[in-house]
Write a structure and sequence with these properties.
The structure holds three protein chains of three kinds. Helix content of chain A is about 70%, strand content about 0%. Chain A has helices at about 1-35, 45-55, 65-80, 85-105, 110-140, 145-150, 160-175, 205-225, 235-255, 260-285; one strand at about 55-60. In chain B, about 35% of the residues lie in helices and about 10% in strands. In chain B, strand 1 (about 10-15), helix 1 (about 20-30) and strand 2 form a beta-alpha-beta unit. Chain B has seven helices and seven strands. In chain B, strands 2-1-3-5-7 form a five-stranded parallel beta sheet. Chain B has a two-stranded antiparallel sheet with strand order 4-6. Chain C is built from 25 helices and five strands. Chain C has helices at about 1-25, 30-55, 70-95, 100-115, 130-160, 170-190, 190-210, 215-245, 250-255, 265-280, 290, 300-305, 310-325, 330-350, 355-375, 380-410, 420-425, 425-440, 445-460, 460-485, 500-520, 520-540, 550-570, 615, 620-645, and strands at about 65, 125-130, 580, 595, 600-605. In chain C, strands 1-2 form a two-stranded antiparallel ribbon. A two-stranded antiparallel ribbon of chain C has the order 4-5. In chain C, helix 4 packs parallel to helix 8 and helix 15 (about 355-375) runs antiparallel to helix 16 (about 380-410). The longest helix of chain C is centred in the middle third of the chain and has 32 residues, at about 215-245. Chain C is globular. In chain C, about 60% of the residues are buried. The chains are: A mainly alpha, B alpha/beta, C mainly alpha. Chains in contact: A-B, A-C, B-C. At the B-C interface, helix 2, helix 5 and helix 7 of B face strand 3, strand 4 and strand 5 of C. Strand 1 of chain A pairs parallel with strand 3 of chain C.
């Protein structure tokens, strides 16, 4: 129990730092790939500090409520995961927090926000199946949905569910809002949607949103790490190395691919999920 | 930590010949790479700290510039880029040009040039950062006094169908202070919650105030 | 004690018929009618709750079986069957839809022949009130009666708006009560002949209710509902005859005692009953009757097509599910259910008529229940029963709210619900709770879905898992975008007059409370309502499907959902923010809904939701899914029935 509380507290304290650094690294690496110096590593922290210091303009009084709910539920979701809770419950809580964000955008009644909200929902429709399948994959391997039980596994899950990992990396591009699939809102200065989902969110509200995104990123990397972790301490090192590699891979993809149309995203993600994760699940069920 | 470490920029073209705009975009390229200073071109007034204006202001763009300015959260700084934006430039006496940007919004930094050089522009932004920091302190004080807490939407919600007149709703050309005064007046007028519209006949009559033609495609942008 | 339950059950079956006669006699909408309906309705509800709690309170196995000597009742039922057939024949001739006569006779006459020639078995108990019946009695008694009470107020408003429709609301209300009586009858009957009789009553009742407005569309849709349900009825009739004449079994409970592995013939009636259940629960390929049923006034949609009637089908499947485990029929039923869940949720994205979205979502959720019951595992039945409970409450609430919104705004289109939270705040909040109950995390539907997922994984049915995960994605899409429309805050808007009568609030308020309370009562319900059913059906205890720390975490989530809005009221969150208009590229014309175009003219701006009709539209997806599932159903029937012959 004490152990769990420690883990949760550590997550709540460290996740924003790690998430912010991850984003900083992403921005620096992107800049170097484009042949420029790029911002300082701590730039995301400067940005959020500034946003929190600024005046907040809102379009209506419930918008801020949804953003706060989004932040709280995202942190809660991560705490559930790092506290060793039930994987399915983690993902259900995650989708709830996402819905809160979508509602925040809907409630503004702005054209760019509403477009962003619709696109975000479509993105959720794309990655929701994969996220549930990942939980099922872990269940097939370890016989339990509890993260704590998975940590005590006999062999890394990736040996049995490599297809799930590929599928998950694919939807990670959507989740991280990286380039071929950064439709609802983007980290880049894409102008066609202004800022999509976050168009009408400003000041400390936007700061909260950014922080929630960091928590979310750390949670996602935590799930990637789960593919490699088993009861051997060395596996933690391997997991961290894998996370770094996959994160840089996402940055690379972000810089290489142009954005696609939304239907291409839906079709490609569902096909990839079916082919990789579906086949993997089928093989597992035959073996078991 | 200073907030000037991450100035986000909104770029708006009043009515320029596009020379300055090209230079503004050039500063974003790898050669000048303004992201070194944390500068990002956001394209959204609600995220921006600095409003970069190019070109003189004409009758059509004046309300837009004011509205963009109003939608930016405090503290905010306005930079006039290029000579046209500073005082109208060679277009100064054209029939439709009101003059420089300072005719419609308070300008903090003037960056001359035709077209403005990226180096001069970066210098201007750096000057603006100092002003931004100053303004932040002021805003912090005024926030403590309960300044900037007007709830426009509540007024809007209390409106009745017969109150709605598109002609009077065009407040985009008002400055921030005027907006606030207007809002405070309205709040004072509706201090007590307005009685609900009693006559059921009012409901169908109000329908036209709704969207005129619902479009079912994904567009509908301005 | 047994006598008391028998008396109460008798009351539950017969009193609604008495109420129907009373309702029919009070022609005009008046206070008197509301009072009579209210008193009668609540007495039925209280009796149902008493019976339900009493049965659920018993330990171990229920032994409430009644009525072994039933010659008199059998004659009444035989007369009733002939009467039903006559009604169908008369109306079919009147509207020149002769195929219905054929189907009606095909189902009824052989059964009559069997009864009259004395080949039907006698001597076993005709009624049985076990745990599953008790749960169903609670659903019908509470949800069904609330809808009837709602209908009294609704029909008055309905006829105020729809002056072109002849006011026959007395007939409508009478039918609703007949329906409730038939539902109780069906739930407590154990004799297959009796079940068949009540089954046919519900078919004919729904037919009459759908055709209420007598417009051409209503008549066509009602006949579509009739022939599909009668087709299912034929399947049921043949199953019934096969049971009596070949297997020498006359009771449902006796049928489920047989072991399929010892006698393959058992699967023939089971498959036929399952087929009948598919038609009743509007699974693909029989979904179109439920979509057509939306032409009827809202209470009938709420009662028949979401809360109770379609539940009969899945109720039958749950009864049969111990037989279905590991059989070919079971696999086929789960595949149809899973496919329906997925296809209907995609279709629900593409429609903007509020009632139609609800209809597709009903079909989709029933698909999930069907799939759960078809797996025949204990977890599957657990999930199916939970889904039935939560779905009945949430969906009837949603239907009623949409009906009220339609009365207030003269439209039930989702797009017209833009900014509902400002226009009709009270109804909007009820609607939000109802929608959240359908798909949000800690609410019942999602928890049951979670259990369903577990049961599919455990029973190793990969295809079902895939259907479920992809279906969940699209389910999320159509609910969330509806929720978004409601939550949009539009400026320069004003409150519409809420004309919802108090009598309707009597129905809406308890249902809303139930959704919230059921979130918290969830572990208790699992222990005291579902667990006994599993013990009885599978004769074994299963560990809690969701237990321990998860329940606590879910409680925390529910609490958070309610605390965040309440907390923000008291704390100064967001009070210091400055209000602006939403960003419309700097050209707002004073509010969020108008902008200045390049000619300086003011134009209206409106953001529609995505429907993606080009990709999943009804014209693209409906026909193929019906064809695919029709093939699956045919294959099932041919292999099982052809195989035994």
């Amino acid at each position: 129990m004490v152990m769990t509380i420690c883990k949760v507290v550590l997550y709540i304290l460290l996740a924003p730092i790690i998430g912010g650094l991850m984003e900083g690294i992403d921005r620096v690496v992107s800049a170097r790939m484009q042949g420029r110096q790029g911002p300082p590593l701590l730039q995301p922290f400067y940005d959020v500090y500034k946003l929190l210091a600024k005046q907040t303009t809102v379009v209506n009084s419930i918008q801020i409520l949804f953003v706060i709910a989004y932040t709280i539920f995202t942190i809660f979701t991560g705490a559930l995961f790092f506290g060793g809770g039930d994987m399915l419950l983690v993902f259900f809580a995650l989708s709830m927090s996402e819905v809160m964000m979508v509602l925040a955008a809907y409630s503004t009644n702005g054209p760019y926000s509403a477009m962003g909200a619709n696109r975000e929902l479509l993105q959720m429709m794309c990655y929701e199946p994969m996220i549930l399948l990942v939980a099922i994959g872990f269940y097939e391997v370890h016989g339990s949905f509890m993260v704590n039980d998975m940590l005590a596994g006999q062999a890394p899950a990736v040996f049995k569910i490599p297809g799930m990992l590929i599928g998950f990396l694919f939807i990670l591009t959507i989740k991280f809002r990286k380039s071929p699939f950064d439709m609802s809102t983007s980290h880049h200065a894409h102008q066609e949607m202004v800022k999509g989902l976050t168009s009408d969110i400003s000041g400390s509200n936007l700061g909260l949103y950014e922080i929630a995104e960091w928590y979310d990123q750390v949670l996602m990397m935590g799930i990637v790490a789960m593919f490699f972790i088993y009861n051997n301490p060395v596996s933690y090192v391997i997991a961290i190395v894998a996370c770094v590699i996959f994160y840089l891979l996402e940055t690379f993809i972000d810089n290489v691919f142009p954005r696609v149309k939304y239907m291409a995203m839906l079709v490609s993600s569902w096909v990839v999920i079916l082919v990789t994760a579906g086949t993997n699940l089928l093989i597992l069920s035959v073996i078991n | 930590m200073k907030i000037s470490k991450s100035p986000w920029v909104l770029h708006y073209d009043g009515s320029s010949c596009n020379g300055c705009d090209i230079e503004v975009l050039a500063t974003m390229t790898p050669l000048y790479d303004v992201e070194r200073f944390g500068i990002i071109n956001t394209g959204n007034p609600k995220h921006a700290d600095i409003l970069l204006l190019t070109g003189g202001i004409n009758a059509q763009t004046a309300p837009v510039v004011r509205q963009l300015y109003n939608q930016m959260p405090d503290p905010k700084v306005v930079i006039a880029c290029g000579i046209c934006s500073c005082d109208g430039g060679i277009f100064k006496d054209c029939y439709n040009i009101l003059g420089g940007s300072d005719k419609v919004v308070p300008v903090d930094v003037y960056v001359p040039g035709c077209a403005v050089r990226p180096e001069a522009l970066i210098d201007g932004v750096v000057k603006a950062l100092a002003i931004l920091e100053e303004k932040r302190v002021k805003v912090k004080e005024s926030m403590k006094q309960g300044y900037c807490t007007v709830d426009y939407s509540k007024i809007a919600v209390r409106m009745k169908a017969e109150d709605y007149d598109p002609a009077t709703q065009y407040d985009a050309v008002l400055t921030e202070e005027a907006l606030r005064e207007q809002a405070e007046e309205k709040i004072a007028a509706t201090a007590k919650p307005a009685p609900k519209p009693a006559a059921p006949a009012a409901a169908p009559a109000a329908k036209p105030a709704e969207a005129a033609e619902p479009k079912k495609d994904e567009g509908g942008n301005a | 004690m047994n006598i008391q339950i028998l008396k109460a059950v008798d009351f539950l079956i017969f009193f609604p018929f008495v109420m129907a006669v009373l309702m029919f006699c009070i022609k005009k909408a008046s206070l008197l009618r509301n009072i009579v309906a209210g008193l009668g309705g609540f007495s039925i509800m209280i009796t149902a709750i008493l019976v339900g709690t009493k049965v659920l309170g018993t330990q171990g196995v229920t032994k409430n079986t009644f009525l072994t000597e039933t010659a008199v009742y059998d004659h009444i039922i035989m007369g009733g069957e002939i009467l039903l057939m006559c009604i169908v024949v008369f109306l079919s001739i009147k509207y020149k839809k002769y195929y219905a006569i054929l189907l009606s006779m095909l189902g009824t006459l052989p059964v009559l022949w069997m009864d009259l020639t004395g080949q039907a078995l006698e001597g076993s108990a005709h009624m049985r009130v076990d745990f599953l019946s008790a749960v169903m009695i609670l659903i019908v008694g509470i949800v069904g009666i609330l809808i009837c009470i709602y209908a009294c107020g609704y029909m008055k408003d309905y006829h105020n708006h729809h002056t072109e429709v002849e006011d026959r609301s007395n007939y409508f209300l009478a039918l609703l009560f007949v329906f409730i009586g038939a539902m109780f009858g069906l739930i407590v009957s154990d004799n297959l002949g009796w079940i068949y009789f009540f089954w046919e009553i519900t078919s004919v009742c729904s037919f009459l209710l759908i055709g209420y407005t007598r417009t051409e569309e209503a008549v066509n849709n009602s006949f579509r509902a009739l022939w599909m349900n009668l087709l299912g009825g034929c399947g049921f009739a043949f199953g019934l005859m096969y049971c009596n004449m070949t297997l020498k079994v006359s009771n449902l409970s006796a049928l489920t005692q047989l072991v399929p592995r010892e006698n393959m013939l058992v699967m023939v009636p089971v498959t036929l009953f399952a087929f009948a259940a598919l038609t009743k629960s509007a699974q693909f390929p029989f979904s179109r009757w439920l979509l057509g049923a939306m032409v009827a006034p809202t209470p009938s949609s709420a009662l028949l097509h979401s809360a109770t009637m379609v539940k009969i089908g899945v109720y039958m499947l749950i009864r049969l599910s111990p037989m279905l485990a590991g059989t070919f029929t079971g696999v086929m039923i789960t595949v149809i259910g899973g496919f329906t869940f997925f296809a209907a949720s995609l279709l629900a994205i593409t429609v903007s008529d509020g009632k139609k979205v609800l209809a597709y979502s009903t079909i989709s959720n029933l698909g999930l229940i069907t799939a759960c019951a078809g797996t025949g595992t204990t977890e599957g039945v657990w999930a199916a029963t939970m889904l039935i409970l939560f779905h009945a409450v949430s969906k009837s609430l949603l239907f009623q709210t949409v009906g009220d919104i339609e009365n207030c705004m003269h439209s039930r289109d989702v797009e017209d619900m833009h900014g509902l939270i400002i226009k009709l705040p009270k109804l909007a909040f009820i609607m939000i709770i109802g929608i959240c109950g359908m798909f949000m995390a800690p609410f019942g539907m999602l928890v049951s879905k979670w259990a369903a997922l577990k049961s599919f994984v455990d029973s190793n049915s990969v295809w079902l898992v895939l259907f479920l995960v992809f279906g969940s994605g699209s389910t999320l899409f159509y609910w969330a975008k509806w929720l978004g429309k409601i939550c949009t805050v539009i400026h320069q808007s004003y409150e519409l007059e809420d004309i919802t009568p108090r009598s309707e609030m009597i129905s809406l308020f308890p249902l809303t409370t139930m959704i919230v309370v059921m979130c918290f009562a969830f572990p208790w319900m699992s222990d005291h309502m579902i667990q006994p059913i599993l013990n009885e059906a599978f004769h074994k205890n299963i560990p809690n499907v969701i237990g321990g720390s998860d329940v606590i975490i879910m409680m925390i989530m529910v609490t958070m959902i309610f605390i965040i809005p309440i907390g923000s009221r008291f704390l100064a969150i967001g009070k210091k923010s400055k209000m602006t208009m939403s960003y419309v590229a700097g050209v707002n014309a004073g509010d969020d809904r108008h902008y200045i175009d390049s000619f300086g003219k003011e134009r209206a701006l409106y953001m529609s939701n995505w429907y993606m009709t080009d990709y999943f539209g009804e014209d693209k997806l409906l026909a193929p899914s019906i064809a695919i599932s029709a093939v699956i159903v045919l294959v099932m029937l041919i292999i099982v029935i052809g195989g035994t012959i």
